[in-house]
Design goal:
CATH topology: Rossmann fold
Number of strands: 5
Largest sheet: 5 strands, parallel
Radius of gyration: 21 Å
Strand content: 5-15%
Oligomer: single chain
Structural class: alpha/beta
CATH superfamily: P-loop containing nucleotide triphosphate hydrolases
Length: 289
């Protein structure tokens, strides 16, 4: 994890390098209030996010257009985090920047009876983006090494084997043309308490409150232990983890949008060539009444 820049510039050379989980990364050492790689305030962050709008829109359209001519590439954004970490805000303010026709969004809840009858990756595979799409996972296959381990829902020998299974699956998905961006939104227990209290205080937010969130809060330390394990074991070359401090919602939105922007830039989708003479068609159109 890169250190916060002391330069005057408000944007890092690479958000991916700044936020990527590497050897020796410790979740407990990362301040959820920090803004790694960005020295600006909330107003500057909003300006920087708005500046990405056109670029993201063009890259998405290029990815979609490329697939119309046989291109097989796509992008998958995986968002994980504790309750109230801001996953919904990312869906509204970051994913909302894209044309919804080219986005495949899946919010994974507790598996159904049919899903439990299959391997844990079965429902995840079924939700992968098609060529030209941007897929978004609100929670993901990582729940099967997080909540499952915290609550001892399956034997340890079962869930502990899933780290390798996940790495193999992600490598296969990546080799198939899908670039994977995995983000953990990292908030503090105090910030979560404030956000839960705010939901209880406002009538327009109470519907979002779930009493079970308080039950899960009691397992905070366990969740951090298993998040650290997932970050250690499953941050690979083809599917690295990025941890975004998320106490400041505006920073989290900017960071995730920037990570997606860089991923799309690396894909560098191209406009498809056309099978007609452009000059000839221009002349035909100009000659029409």
């Amino acid at each position: 994890m890169g250190k916060k820049s002391t330069e005057k510039s408000t944007t890092p050379t690479s958000w991916s390098d700044t936020l990527r989980v590497g050897p020796g990364f410790a979740l407990t050492a990362l301040d959820p209030d920090s803004t790694p790689g960005f020295d600006g305030d909330k107003e500057a962050g909003s300006t920087a996010l708005a500046a990405l709008d056109d670029a993201l829109s063009e890259l998405q359209e290029r990815l979609y257009a490329e697939s119309r001519e046989g291109g097989g590439r796509s992008l998958l954004l995986v968002i994980q985090g504790m309750d109230t970490s801001g996953k919904g805000g990312i869906m509204r303010h970051v994913v909302g920047l894209f044309d919804p026709q080219g986005v495949r969004h899946t919010a994974f809840k507790a598996p159904t009876a049919d899903e439990r009858a299959h391997d844990f990756l079965w429902r995840i595979t079924n939700a992968l983006p098609q060529p030209g799409e941007i897929g978004v996972f609100d929670r993901s296959h990582y729940e099967d090494v997080l909540i499952v381990a915290v609550h001892d829902l399956v034997p340890k020998e079962v869930w502990s084997a899933r780290y390798d299974q996940i790495n193999e699956w992600e490598a296969k998905v990546s080799a198939g043309g899908t670039r994977i961006v995995k983000v953990m939104l990292h908030i503090s227990p105090d910030e979560q308490k404030k956000r839960l209290a705010a939901r209880l205080e406002r009538v327009d937010k109470q519907w979002k409150f779930n009493p079970k969130d308080l039950d899960e809060r009691a397992f905070w330390a366990d969740y951090m232990t298993y998040y650290q394990a997932a970050l250690d074991k499953c941050s690979t070359e083809v599917a690295p983890w990025f941890v975004v401090p998320a106490n400041r919602k505006w920073y989290a939105g900017l960071a995730v949008a920037s990570l997606v922007h860089e991923a799309l830039q690396r894909l560098d989708p191209q406009w498809p060539s056309v099978d007609f003479d452009v000059a000839e068609q221009r002349a035909r159109l100009a000659a029409m009444p």
